[in-house]
Amino acid sequence: MSPIGRPSLKTALKATTVAGIAAVMLSTGIPAQIMPTFAAPVSVNAPQAPSFADVVSAVSPAVVSVRVKSDTQPVSDDSGNYSFNFGGRGLDELPDDSPLKRLFRQFGGQMPGGPDGGQNGKGKQEHAERGKQHYLRPVAQGSGFFISEDGYIVTNNHVVSDGQAYTVVLNDGTELDAKLVGKDSRTDLALLKVDAPARKFTYVSFADDSKVRVGDWVVAVGNPFGLGGTVTAGIVSARGRDIGSGPYDDYIQVDAAVNRGNSGGPTFDLNGQVVGINTAIFSPSGGNVGIAFAIPASTAKDVIADLMKDGKVARGWLGVQIQPVTQDIADSLGLKEATGALVVAPQEDSPGQKAGIKQGDIIRQVNGQPVKDARDLARRIAAFGPNAKVDLDVWREGKEQTIPVTLGDMAKDDTASADDDQGQEAPTPSSEKALANLGITVSPAEDGKGLAVTDVDPDSEAAARGLKNGEKIISVNNKKVASAGDVGKVLDQAKKDGRTRALFQVEADGSSRFIALPISEG
After folding, report:
1. Helix%, strand%, coil% for the chain, nearest 5
2. CA atoms within 13 A on the CB side of 237
3. Disulfide-capable partner of 156 in 181, 264, 267, 350 (CB 3.0 to 4.6 Å)?
4. Which of 319, 366, 368, 327 is CA-nearest to residue 344?
């Protein structure tokens, strides 16, 4: 048996693995029974996160940066410099090496006082002369994407709405002029067109977003802060978000990083199809916090088709002011479910008014299809288009009836007209008690229409529901009221009908709303 000796350097270098160490020990004569036992190295057989590289390389040529310019008159100060305000700070106050100042020069902007920032008299004089004229200057930038090989580009309305000249920058740096084909403020979508007959552009298509599920991977590509071609990834966080931006809110919420400049850019699924158009972010700081909202592809597809065809969107118009049906309102009207849309007021000479839709009606179905809420009704009516004939199932005075309506063109909102005066009735002890139980004090309105609220108990449910001094009560359970006695009569009848709540129509600042208040048993 060979004596135990020190291994050579060459031998020691072989000991780079467990097997190597064991081999060296054996070669140096160490008995096998005293050799150390080594555990296997850590090895995890976990699912690997997907790579988005294939998707990104395929779709990136279809995504563009959108630069918008407008013919405006900058404000000139006494020195001949202009005040361009970015967050309360003029560009001339920024240091010369500021990224924002470089960005402004890059996009064709002229710094106050000339290219050198106004450090010489000639620059100030020329700048002062230009201040007397209108000129195109950058006003916005965002993102967009090609949807056809001949140059149609989708973006957001709020990106292009103030512009008069548009430039798109391709992912290879090529700059091309574009023209505005059409825009739609209600869905915040717009369509641009690049005329370049010699080119065929890479384009993308819209996905069937009905198959998009919460938790699916998505990839956002855009131009945040002027950094074109930026790619971020995340998941679908929620569907059907209403953020109060318009009557057709139905956003897809994603947690992919979306910032200023991403507006109008696409959010892709892993098949490279557009599931949504990035439009808004929730951000206390102005930057990404993981809450972004995208217009669904299904909405965009229909709107863009109309813009491409006519340059505008044709929508059906019913012409009624509506609000959601809460459970309290449903209880006050004898409904089991809080579904449908409550008509606050039909507009004068609107299709709804002409067909016989009345204040206080609950629209529950359109052509036999249930209406979930007020937002659902607005989308359904708009989808029919002008001059369409529809049947509306409404709940009125405890009964359901069908009203045929011929829709009109989408019109501007008009103020609903007031109804004729009604005679007043002297209050009775029971009516005064009923109002006291509600925590409100009223008096006849000066114009003779309704009751003016003169006092609201801060601890009452009326106060909790938002009723305030100075507002007017127009009706109770869809019955016009002009006195406390009128209110008492309606509440007494509601008790006889087994209702626990009454529906009050409240008017303030020219608009109406409904609130449901409890009826006292006393």
Report:
1. 25, 30, 45
2. 15
3. 264
4. 319
Residue 303 forms beta bridges with which residues? none
Rounded to whole angstroms, what are the CA distances from 465 to 321, 337, 482?
20, 20, 22
Residue 114: band (very low, low, confident or very high) from pLDDT cuts 50, 70, 90 = very low
Q: Please give the sequence-ordered ranges of beta strands (E in DSSP) within 6-127, or none if there are none.
A: 63-72, 85-86, 89-90
pLDDT digits (tens, 9 = 90+) for 312-341: 888 898 989 888 898 988 888 888 889 999
Nearest of 307, 410, 321 to residue 357 by alpha carbon:
321
Spatial separation of the C-alpha atoms in residues 435 and 331, rounded to whole Å: 20
DSSP state of 433: H
Express each pLDDT in 384-434 by its tens digit: 888 999 999 999 988 899 999 999 987 443 322 223 333 333 344 455 566
C-alpha distances in Å from residue 70, one per residue of 140, 260, 375: 9, 19, 35
**Which residues, 6 or more positions from 370, have their beta carbon under 8 angstroms from its beta carbon?**
339, 364
Q: Looking at residue 366, what DSSP letter applies?
A: E
CA quadruple 390, 394, 400, 401: dihedral sign = negative
